[in-house]
Design a protein that fits this description.
This protein is an alpha/beta fold and about 700 residues long. The chain folds into two domains: about 450 residues, Amino acid/polyamine transporter I, CATH 1.20.1740; about 180 residues, no CATH class. Helices cover about 55% and strands about 10% of the residues. The chain contains 27 helices and eight strands. It has a six-stranded mixed sheet with strand order 5-6-4-2-7-8, sandwiched between helices. Strands 1-3 form a two-stranded antiparallel ribbon. Helix 4 packs across helix 10 and helix 4 packs antiparallel against helix 14. It is a multi-pass membrane protein. It is found in: Cell membrane; Membrane.
């Protein structure tokens, strides 16, 4: 695609333009010194791996495991509620339910995501869109599971901060003094939750690395806390270890004593909802650091589940506990003196759980933009690692969404009913894409079939079990997923129509016309320098829309024409440019090669380029008589033209294509200001609409009549 539309600049600020080298010819051509020349989409991202270290592992604990790490706060609670409360606790229930939880975490998180999915990295990035970009050449239809899975994951990510933070805040009620303060109503809980959620999204600009360094020690202590408290009860009742037997889980699933029936799997699934985020965050922390930390995390999680199970067995049928509304074993198993500390620590862990989904959402949206599934958005790189990014618009949308969830559902019990349904869709879609990765790229053909049959069946089972959540709140995440999916489909379809109409024209063929226009004094001089931003990296060609704007849509006379492309490089501090003059002193094709840590102040950088060319004599002096300076400089005025495509009413496209274009351009208006992204706030910028070149409909010829005659 070769759109010249500045508002649609494809990943100029997100660093996914590829690894093209600058042209060797030109006044200031500087070759890239990148070592990252691995072939795109082969799943081999060794050159992009973040080294394994204690510091990086600490960041990993702080960034990746928040969601799955807080599951002990509500999984056992949900299982207990489904069984009918503590009066219905039996050994069969505890061992069977815990067995289902243990093997859910083992199969879905350890086997599928840690051992298999993490190997499917795209230049170090993970997530369903990164996976799709690797396998998309094996079938056009694969865009469907990619969009569906990505939409569901983003929708579920909006619910995660609300449910985890609300659950932790509700733990205050287990402390008598706090219970008397906040009361039995939800108003105070909601207020506290909203404050914490707002603070969480406010600190995102600091970057994953800084947040991870702050959260890492907290999460390390959290997992040690989970493991130690669980271990105390496991040692008191070692028989709880029988839950590792998978037959216990299968037997209880089919048992008449299972009051929840197959729907118990919906509660078990909550134990692994953070697995997809673990894969999405791979670009933030590196695959090796996830390998190094997951065993520690899993051991602590399982000890916590087993400890809660042992505590429930020891307190089965306790009438005092039965009187507690919405009993949460995670908090009740702790001594009264420990609970205030546990509530504070769990609140911190809940905030970090939300962080895992937020950082994963940034990665997902960045990949979606690169794949033309979402509009280009302003992206910042707060850390030295390219995988660690921050997208203000995504951050703000998720913040508003979380606020809406808290206000809509109020309590964690209602939120848990909605939680996890959408993520089962994502997991099924990921399994489908992983099949093509294993089958076509890894060449594990038999293993690929075994994988896809087993995991799609397993996740389909979980999806069916979670469907009962739809009318209890699951509708919210499904509606959110449908909205995000609609945006992706509209953008993708609109882009497909544009691609069919896009045409590249050789610049050299139009040098004569540009020379004549710049010397044609019958046209007013628009500016000394007229600048167009383009995302086309081919030096010798331009999008037809740019030349149409200059020559056909009211000819634009200037002393020099500049066609500028910004390419973000894999190195953080690359700062170079190349210029092709085509043997003229009035047409300049400029490529800016900027590291992802370099601010994109296009106006300032272009002036440096122009100064260099002026000093070398390649750009003639642009003298002018009027200036606030005693001695005016040799460089004249600049105007930047931002092109936007439009679909003429007479265009010969069917109604479906017309709707796709209209929806895409509607979405584009909400994506932000490209002038601000490229540092052109103080520059002279004007927007011009050019037609999306399509064949026009044939119309009947009109009949000319005499001026004194009426038809």
């Amino acid at each position: 695609m070769t759109q010249s539309t500045a508002s649609d600049q494809k990943e100029h600020t997100s660093g996914t333009q590829g690894t093209r080298k600058p042209d060797d010819h030109g006044a200031a051509a500087i070759k890239r010194k990148s070592k990252n020349e691995s072939k795109h989409g082969d799943g081999d991202d060794k050159s992009h791996n973040i080294p394994v270290s204690i510091a990086a592992m600490l960041v990993t604990l702080g960034v990746v495991y928040g969601d799955i790490g807080t599951s002990p706060m509500y999984v056992t609670k949900a299982l207990l509620a489904g069984q009918g409360g503590i009066m219905q606790v039996t050994e069969e229930f505890i061992l069977g339910a815990l067995s289902l939880v243990i093997w859910t975490v083992t199969l879905l998180t350890t086997v599928k995501y840690v051992l298999i999915s993490l190997k499917a990295g795209n230049h170090g990035e993970g997530g369903i869109f990164a996976l799709y970009s690797i396998v998309r050449k094996y079938g056009k239809w694969l865009i469907i599971p990619a969009m569906l899975g990505g939409s569901a994951l983003l929708a579920d990510g909006i619910l995660t901060p609300a449910v985890t933070i609300t659950t932790a805040v509700e733990g205050l009620r287990t402390i008598p003094a706090m219970r008397s303060l906040i009361g039995d109503g939800q108003t105070n809980v909601v207020i506290i939750t909203l404050i914490i959620v707002s603070l969480l999204f406010a600190v995102q600009r600091a970057g994953t690395s800084k947040i991870g360094r702050a959260f890492g020690p907290v999460m390390t202590f959290w997992f040690l806390f989970l493991g130690a408290n669980g271990l105390v009860y496991v040692l008191g009742n070692p028989a709880i270890l029988l839950a590792f037997n998978p037959l216990r889980g299968i037997a209880f699933l089919l048992s008449p004593n299972n009051h929840a029936g197959v729907m118990i799997l919906g509660s078990c699934f909550l134990a692994t909802t953070g697995a997809e985020a673990l894969y999405s965050d791979m670009g933030h922390v590196g695959r090796g650091n996830i390998y190094a930390t997951w065993p520690f995390v899993k051991i602590c999680l399982l000890l916590s589940y087993l400890g809660q199970g042992a505590w429930l067995l020891a307190n089965a049928g306790n009438p005092e506990l039965a009187a507690i509304q919405d009993l949460n074993p995670f908090f009740e198993m702790l001594g009264e003196g420990m609970r205030p500390f546990a509530v504070g620590l769990s609140t911190c862990a809940a905030i970090i759980a939300s962080q895992a989904l937020v950082t994963g959402a940034f990665s997902l949206v960045s990949e979606a933009s690169r794949l033309d599934l979402m509009p280009h958005m302003q992206i910042f790189y707060p850390a030295e690692t390219k995988g660690q990014l921050y997208i203000p618009m995504v951050n703000n949308v998720m913040w508003v969404g979380c606020i809406a969830v808290v206000l809509l559902f109020q309590s964690s019990a209602h939120m848990e009913a909605a939680y996890g349904l959408a993520i089962t869709i994502t997991m099924i879609c990921t399994s489908i894409l992983l099949f093509f990765f294993l089958h076509n790229i890894r060449k594990r053909k038999i293993a690929a079939w075994i994988f896809v049959i087993f995991f799609v069946a397993l996740e389909g089972f979980f999806f069916g079990a979670s469907l009962t959540k739809f009318f209890h709140g699951g509708y919210f995440t499904i509606l959110m997923a449908a909205l995000i999916m609609g945006i992706m489909v509209s953008w993708y379809n609109g882009t497909s129509v544009e691609r069919r109409q896009a045409t590249l024209l050789p610049i050299r063929s139009y040098l004569g016309q540009l020379d004549s226009l710049r010397n044609d004094e019958t046209y007013e001089l628009m500016s000394d320098n007229l600048v167009y931003l383009t995302n086309e990296t081919n030096t010798n060609y331009l999008d037809r829309d740019i030349l149409y704007s200059i020559l056909d849509k009211h000819p634009k006379r200037a002393r020099a024409y500049w066609f500028l492309n910004v390419e973000v490089m894999d190195e953080p501090h690359t700062f170079s440019y190349s210029v092709e003059t085509f043997g003229t002193d009035y047409v300049f094709r400029v490529h800016l090669y900027l590291g992802y840590k370099v601010n994109q102040r296009v106006n300032a950088y272009l002036r440096q380029v122009v100064s260099d060319l002026s000093a070398s004599g390649e750009l003639p002096p642009q003298t002018h008589e009027y200036s606030v300076y005693k001695k005016p400089g040799p460089i004249g005025s600049f105007r930047f033209c931002m092109l936007r495509k439009m679909l003429a009413p007479e265009s010969d496209v069917d109604s479906r294509e017309r709707s796709a274009i209209a929806l895409k351009y509607t979405i584009r208006r909400f994506a932000g200001s490209p002038a601000r992204w490229f540092g052109l706030e103080s520059s002279s910028v004007f927007y011009e609409y050019v037609p999306l070149f399509t064949k026009f409909k044939e119309v009947d010829r009109m009949t000319r009549i005499d001026p004194n005659t009426r038809p």
